[in-house]
Amino acid sequence: MRIARIGEVGHERLAIMPTESSAIYVDDVVGELSRDTLGAGALEKLSALDLSGRPVVELTDERIGSPIARPTKIICVGLNYREHARESGADIPQEPVLFMKSSDTVQGPFDDILVPPGSAATDYEVELAIIIGAPALYLASEEEALGVIAGFAISQDVSERYWQLERGGQWDKGKSFPSFNPLGPYLLTPDEWNPKNKRMSCSVNGESRQDSATSDMIFGVGEIVRYISNVMALSPGDVINTGTPQGVGFGFTPPRYLSPGDTVETAIEGLGTQRAQVSATAGPHK
Question: Based on the domain organization, do 27 and 165 belong to the same domain?
Answer without folding.
Answer: no
